[in-house]
Design brief:
This protein has 28 helices and 31 strands. Helix 8 (472-489) crosses helix 9. A hairpin with a 4-residue loop joins strand 6 and strand 7. Helix content is 41%, strand content 19%. Strands 1, 2, 4, 5, 8, 11, 13 and 14 form an 8-stranded mixed beta sheet that branches. It has a 5-stranded mixed beta sheet with strand order 16-17-18-20-19. Strands 29-24-23-31 form a 4-stranded mixed beta sheet. It has 6 domains: 69-286, Immunoglobulin-like, CATH 2.60.40.1730; 287-396, Neutral Protease Domain 2 (Neutral Protease, domain 2), CATH 1.10.390; 399-427 and 451-543, Neutral Protease, domain 2 (Orthogonal Bundle), CATH 1.10.390.10; 547-678, Immunoglobulin-like (Sandwich); 713-834, Zincin-like fold (Alpha Horseshoe), CATH 1.25.50; 835-963, Alpha Horseshoe (Zincin-like fold), CATH 1.25.50.20. The protein has 964 residues and is α+β, with helices and mostly antiparallel strands. Bound molecules: 2-acetamido-2-deoxy-beta-D-glucopyranose (4 copies). One 2-acetamido-2-deoxy-beta-D-glucopyranose binds next to loops. Residues 39-72 are annotated as: Disordered. InterPro entries: Aminopeptidase_N-like_N, Aminopeptidase_N-like_N_sf, ERAP1-like_C_dom, M1_APN-typ, Peptidase_M1, Peptidase_M1_aminopeptidases, Peptidase_M1_dom, Peptidase_M4/M1_CTD_sf. Pfam families: ERAP1_C, Peptidase_M1, Peptidase_M1_N. Residues 618-943 form the ERAP1-like C-terminal domain.
Length: 964
């Protein structure tokens, strides 16, 4: 899956403190919601299967919970070979029950590999038609012999099994066939076989679609739902005349048949390759498509008007080249006969790599240059590359169990940049991994409550534990350490090992160390000089959480490492097999000249090369931030680096300028250097025009905004930053001939957004007048004059400066927009208003799927919380509605950690800490699902923030008042 929500950090705009009026609105709101909750409990079906309780023939003594069906993992007795599945989703509600449903039947042929008298097969929320023996399934033997009778059959809800107890034993080596017939709800819950809705020409349209990863294939048909139990699948879909059906395989034939007295279409698909259940997909829609044949058949599917408007063209244009790139990179032809990609209006993640039928959020696939910013376009290119990368890495070769998820997602998150770079070579997109992944995940991985990349197989059992793994550590740290590995092995050696790994394990499963073995063979072959084996080096990064700060003393040449903790007083309770020491590859420079790679293999060492004698000579380590660590220097070297920044900043490569800022701010957070020293890295920004250093500075200053935007320090910060950003603002004004054209470079376009956001945010009048005049022109003429690149920030600032008129205008545009990318910009911008009742009304809308789609609910709440005026409103809202929010959005969603982290990000007072602890206690019973870890991280972060403010407020205020 691709990461779901990307939240822009510069939407919040300063304003007033929430008043009494807002509080009373909150109380009124929570009454509304408790009524809503009560209503919902009546209306919603229990979702339980038909016969959920154990029949009396089985022992009823309190079970010690060690029956096979109490365990979340399947016993190793049966191995599926082949499934045939027929599904018929109804796109209209049942006239009697009002439910949207699907019916289906399936059989699975499986081999018994260990004698047993028990069949456990996953099944969740399915109702079964009992056979003539009143059993949920029929068992028969394939080819020879006979099958034992089914003694008892029942559904075990907790562990999501259909349990079949047999009269006799299944014989080792014999193949059996299990037939079932079932009904499920086609709910709007974004998991398993579910429905998505949209309006076209005033008519409501319904799509049946799937999201199986991680454990929801079992919600669409009974299956052995573990990634290592690969099998072949014959899929058949029954669907209304006039709709199209898609699945992983190519359509073999579509015929008109009669079912239940209705004329319907039956589409039979080619048998799939041997694959995991979580990669299956079934979709029925009335979509249109465009296609091209570029080695394989490539099709882009979307709503008819979107295809007609050419919104699939960009995806179609870049898919062929990216597939070709990966074929070369992996040295392996695309494993399937077709590649379909489809945009779904309701979709929880960013995208899902179903084999041969990739599903996307609309914003992640559809491109329209009248509405899309360069950032939207980049996201489309990188997500497509991410998913296509999985067609081999993940789908052809699959990790055996979810504990190794980090390798699957980390790998795709790394090579997505390589794939996107092939499609758009002018962008230099590969540099951005430093901001988007390395810096981003440093923030999480520097907490004592972080976790190692790799988990033990036994520790990851329940669906919620699996969901929790879809986090920044798996994606971004995974990507960062693989990039580092590829760098020190060199790219040709890395790809050679990768290619032989894919060759050996095609259509099979692996554990992460299998990749290390193949890389090691490539290393041995190429005689790469490594201080230790690939496995020994990588274990230090994979088996322990966190990362080091490397300290270089240029006076003595000493180089040492220490576990970097954002809060130096936090207590690390997680033991590490390596004592929090890492095998650290150091690429470095001396006064602008690149030096040979060196390794730090122990706690500290001395390297005479790193001694510096000249008065203006400096050392800079972690060239281009290819290493997953931070760097600190002796005070003299820091001074010289700061001098280099202010005298001739281009003597330091731009990625490292971004690094110096980020490292300095974080070292200051960890009390390794004074905060004032970090602030000094922003002095040179007056002369900086490059995007990456600016973005790095803004990401770090964001913390100052969060900590101080409710205090008197804020005014001084604004004044300083206004002075720093004004030259950049003027630069863009000239470059674009008074805002009439668009800068050429991708990064320049990004930095133009930074210039406007920061200038407006810090109160530069010219900026505020500019954006308000654009927005006003749009409202007056109904013609939008704002370039798509600038829309997010312009909308946000104009809505913040405006009132109900501006907000309602945006809401109307949001509701009438048929372009998801445009709607998303408006949705984020509406959270920028400073009017409390508007914010509260907006919060209320997030629980109404008719107003805000479920997929967008949690991110909208986070947007509101980012606004200083919305912060406490959003928090009260979450607290008072937790039960409801959790039951609606808690299952399967991995944006849940984002919700908790997002809403508590600004927390920095004892009062907020107390509330957070209380929240944790009060909802212990309901739980936090995939947000469990995020709750602890938020508590830790809040404690650190409280301390930080106490220690820094005075000096920070003083520095901003007199910045030198
Ligand atoms: C499944 O059975 C339960 C209990 O009888 C019922 O409430 C539910 O609506 C059924 N679901 C479907 C999709 O038929
Ligand atoms: C099925 O749809 C096609 C085109 O939409 C139409 O020509 C045909 O008459 C329909 N057949 C039936 C049996 O409804
Ligand atoms: C599955 O599909 C393949 C061809 O796609 C076909 O040859 C085979 O007979 C099918 N198997 C079953 C059980 O329908
Ligand atoms: C797709 O490629 C065609 C042919 O190169 C080009 O004319 C068109 O502008 C491209 N469309 C997009 C959206 O990139």
């Amino acid at each position: 899956m691709a990461k779901g929500i990307f939240i822009s950090k510069y939407l919040a705009v300063g304003g007033i403190i929430v008043g009494v009026a807002a509080l009373s609105t909150i109380i009124a709101l929570s009454v509304v919601y408790s009524q809503e909750r009560a209503k919902n409990n009546e209306a919603s079906p229990t979702h339980e299967g038909g016969t959920t309780s154990k029949p009396t023939t089985t022992p009823t003594t309190p079970s010690p919970s060690n029956e096979p069906w109490d365990k979340y993992r399947l016993p190793k007795t049966l191995v599926p070979h082949h499934y045939s599945v027929t599904l018929w989703p109804r796109l209209k509600p049942d006239p009697v029950t009002g439910l949207y449903i699907f019916t289906g039947n399936s059989f699975v042929e499986f081999e018994c590999v260990e004698e047993t008298d028990l069949i456990l097969i996953h099944s969740n929320k399915l109702n079964y038609t009992l056979d003539s023996n009143k059993k949920h399934a029929t068992l028969s033997a394939v080819s020879s012999g006979s099958a034992p009778a089914i003694k008892n059959s029942w559904l075990k809800t907790e562990t999501q099994y259909l349990v079949l107890e047999l009269d006799g034993k299944l014989v080792k080596g014999q193949t059996y066939r299990l037939d079932t017939e079932f009904t499920g709800e086609l709910a709007d819950d974004l998991g398993g076989f579910y429905r998505s809705e949209y309006i076209e020409d005033g008519v409501k349209k319904v799509i049946a679609t799937t999201q199986m990863q991680a454990t929801d294939a079992r919600k669409s048909f009974p299956c052995f739902d573990e990634p290592a139990l690969k099998a072949y699948f014959n899929i058949t879909l029954i669907h209304e005349n006039g709709t199209v059906a898609l699945s992983n395989g190519a359509e073999k034939e579509t015929t008109l048949i009669t079912m239940d007295d209705q004329e319907v279409l039956q589409t039979v698909f080619e048998r799939t390759e041997k694959m995991s259940t979580y990669l299956l997909a079934f979709i029925v829609s009335d979509y249109d498509y465009i296609n091209t044949i570029d080695g394989v058949q490539i099709r882009i599917y979307a709503r008819k008007p979107a295809i007609a408007a050419g919104q699939g063209d960009y995806a179609l244009n870049i898919t062929g080249p990216i597939l070709k790139f990966f074929e070369e990179y992996y040295n392996s032809t695309y494993p399937l006969p077709k590649s379909d990609q489809i945009a779904i209006p309701d979709f929880n993640a960013g995208a899902m790599e179903n084999w041969g039928l990739i599903t996307y959020r609309e914003t992640a696939l559809l491109y329209d240059d009248a509405f899309a910013s360069n950032s939207n376009k980049e996201r489309i290119a990188t997500i497509i590359a991410h998913e296509l990368a999985h067609m081999w890495f993940g789908n052809l070769v699959t990790l055996r169990w979810w504990n190794d998820l980090w390798l699957n997602e980390g790998f795709a998150s790394y090579v997505e940049y390589l794939g996107a770079d092939k499609a758009e070579p002018e962008w230099n997109v590969t540099d951005l991994i430093v901001l988007n992944d390395v810096h981003r995940v440093f923030a999480v991985d520097a907490l004592a409550s972080s976790h190692p990349l790799s988990s033990l197989e036994d520790d990851i059992q329940k669906p919620a534990q699996i969901s929790e793994l879809f986090d920044a550590i798996s994606y971004s740290k995974g990507a960062s350490v693989l990039r580092m590995l590829s760098d020190f092995l060199t790219e040709p050696v890395f790809t050679k090992g990768l290619q032989s790994y894919l060759r050996e394990f095609a259509f099979d499963n692996t554990v992460y160390t299998d990749l290390w073995s193949h890389l090691q063979a490539a290393v041995d072959d190429a005689k790469v000089d490594l201080p230790k084996s690939v496995q020994d080096i990588m274990n230090t990064w994979v088996l322990q959480m966190g990362f080091p700060v490397v300290t270089i003393d240029t006076a003595s040449g000493s180089v040492s490492q220490k576990h970097f903790l954002l809060d130096p007083d936090s207590i690390v309770t997680t033991p590490s097999p390596y004592n929090y020491e890492w095998s650290v590859p150091i690429r470095w420079m001396k006064t602008g000249t690149d030096q040979d790679l060196i390794w730090l293999m122990e706690k500290s060492a001395t390297n005479d090369d790193m001694k510096v004698t000249g008065a203006s000579d400096w050392v800079l380590a972690n060239r281009d931030v290819v290493g997953y660590y931070r760097v600190n220097y002796d005070a003299a070297n820091w001074e010289k680096l700061l001098a280099a920044l202010s005298n001739n900043h281009e003597s330091i490569p731009k990625i490292n300028r971004a690094q110096l800022v980020d490292d300095a701010f974080n070292l200051a957070r960890a009390k390794i250097i004074p905060t004032v020293q970090a602030l000094k890295t922003t002095l040179y920004l007056k002369n900086e025009r490059e995007y990456m250093p600016w973005k790095s500075a803004l990401d770090n200053l964001d913390f100052f905004f969060l900590m101080f935007d409710r205090s008197e320090v804020y005014g001084a910060i604004q004044e300083y930053l206004r002075n720093q950003v004004t030259p950049l603002f003027q630069h863009y004004k000239e470059l674009t001939s008074n805002w009439t054209n668009v800068p050429d470079g991708h990064m320049d376009q990004y930095n133009q957004v930074n210039a406007i956001s920061l200038a407006c945010k810090t109160g530069l009048k010219e900026c505020q007048d500019l954006v308000q005049s654009w927005f006003k022109e749009w409202m007056d003429t109904d013609k939008n004059p704002i370039h798509p690149n600038l829309r997010s920030t312009v909308y946000c600032n104009a809505i913040a400066a405006g009132g109900v008129k501006e907000w309602d205008f945006a809401w109307e545009k949001f509701n009438t927009s048929t372009i998801a990318i445009e709607a998303d910009k408006l949705r984020a911008a509406m959270a920028c208003t400073t009017t409390p009742w508007l914010l509260n009304r907006y919060l209320e809308y997030t629980l109404d799927p008719g107003r805000i789609r479920k997929q967008d609910a949690t991110s909208t709440i986070v947007y509101i919380a980012q606004n200083v005026d919305g912060q406490s409103l959003a928090w009260y809202f979450i607290k008072s509605n937790w039960n409801y929010i959790f039951t609606q959005y808690g299952g399967g969603s991995f944006s849940f950690a984002n919700l908790i982290n997002g809403v508590t990000k600004r927390f920095s007072t004892e009062f907020e800490l107390k509330q957070l602890n209380q929240f944790k206690e009060e909802n212990a019973e309901v739980g936090f699902g995939s947000g469990t870890l995020a709750v602890d991280q938020s508590i830790e972060r809040t404690q650190a923030n409280i301390k930080w403010i106490k220690e820094n407020k005075d000096s920070v205020l003083e520095w901003f008042q007199n910045p030198v």
